[in-house]
Amino acid sequence: MTEQNKNIVILGAAESGVGAALLAASKGFQVFVSDTGSIQEVFKNKLLENKIAFEEGKHTSEKILSASEIIKSPGIPDKAEIIKAAKKAKIPVISEIEFAGRYTKAKIIGITGTNGKTTTTLLTFHLLKKAGLRVGLAGNIGNSFAELVVKDEFDFYVLELSSFQLDGIKDLKIDIGVITNITPDHLDRYEYKIENYVASKFRIIRNMDRSCTFIYGEDSELIQDALFDVDTDAQELPFSLEESEGVAAWGNLNRITLDPHFDISHDGHQESNLLSVDLTKSVLKGRHNVYNTMASALVAAKLGISARVIEDGLQDFQNAPHRMELAGVWDGVTFINDSKATNVDSAWYALDAIKNPIVWIAGGVDKGNNYSDLYKVIEGKVKALVCLGVENEKLINAFKGKIPVIQESKNVRECLQLCKDLAKKGDVVLLSPCCASFDLFKNYEDRGNKFKEELKKLIQAN
């Protein structure tokens, strides 16, 4: 079947879907885009400008099931009726990432993990760019990989890959793949089976060969367990906070050591291979960021980037918003926006990184969280919990008797005022919700932005 005769249907008309449509159209395919919601103006204009047929507010089954291949948005689950119908009709269903990978010869660096993947992706991109490499940034970070491949101007692509995006990978080869860590998350999408979620993450190594590199967090128990059942020909570079002969990177809050030529089948390290990277001037703080830095630095070192360039990059790196972001100081109380912390593990790292007394804001849509994992880190540190959500019963029951004061709020401004009243000078108010945001907000960005906006108004008013 020629490209002109091949009928590509794209489900979802946001960043990834419209990017896939633009790439498919540029390659001469017949393209139709379908979205059950309303299409944002910016994306609608791109479709109109490129004369790409689309529909919104519905899925027309006849048109969709006439496809030679379907590219679906990562937000559409496999259990959706239209996807089940497509699979029954034996129509291949792939992701935008898989589709875009067919049309570039650039090296692909794929980064996934339950926590830290955005910071690691942004830092990796920053380090490669700092070294003068021609590198593009895309994936779950917000940019369409497919749209970048239309012009294909880069030698490397750094892609943040969610488990949902990895689910749609079939033949794509990731040249350097990173799994930062794995902890329970999104289990509602994976039949509440952790093994399904882990398998999704490990799809990143699905098509690796001897030319590829697999970098992973050695200290993650779920990664360790999965490795017993995984076989790959790729070079393996595990990283850990603990130094041992079996890891390629290790370190602490002040310094990390890297061995990018590490061979997991041979014990020991050659001194001539080791790179030492000073972290004392890094803008990234906390143990969780030591892990993120090791992962990014291993990618950079594997590509021949020096320790000096890595150190320089760590000093002028700017992380994405809503990740341990200083939102403001109000009468000596520091407010931190960590709205991106939508699961227990990411909240644990935030709570662990702060040494001052904490008034903690948590709550939202629970994703099957086990809050007992936080009991040790909150002990003697969290003086009050303010639940910001619609349904707070599970959260309250989990921490009753563990945290001295627990209050509730469904309004950001009220929540901030409550926190200020509960805090003393030198305390930290931490928004690290543990939960998804969809009960009161559009997404975690909306939650974080409202937190910052209302805090600014309150500071100005007082």
Radius of gyration, CA atoms, in whole angstroms: 23 Å
How far is the first residue's CA from the last residue's CA? 68 Å
Low-pLDDT sequence parts: none
Strands of the biggest beta sheet: in what spatial order? 7-8-6-9-10-11-12-13-14
User: Oligomeric status of the shown chains?
Assistant: single chain
Note down, in words, how this protein is organized:
The protein starts with 6 loop residues before the first strand and ends with a helix. The chain has 17 helices and 20 strands. It has 3 domains: 7-94, Rossmann fold (3-Layer(aba) Sandwich); 98-316, UDP-N-acetylmuramoyl-L-alanine:D-glutamate ligase; 325-461, Mur ligase, C-terminal domain (Protein-Tyrosine Phosphatase, Chain A, Alpha-Beta Complex). The protein is of the alpha/beta class.
Keywords:
20 strands, Protein-Tyrosine Phosphatase, Chain A, Rossmann fold, 3 domains, 462 residues, nine-stranded mixed beta sheet, UDP-N-acetylmuramoyl-L-alanine:D-glutamate ligase, six-stranded mixed beta sheet, alpha/beta
Short description:
With 462 residues, the chain is an alpha/beta fold. The chain has three domains: 7-94, NAD(P)-binding Rossmann-like Domain (Rossmann fold, 3-Layer(aba) Sandwich); 98-316, 3-Layer(aba) Sandwich (UDP-N-acetylmuramoyl-L-alanine:D-glutamate ligase); 325-461, Protein-Tyrosine Phosphatase, Chain A, CATH 3.90.190.20.
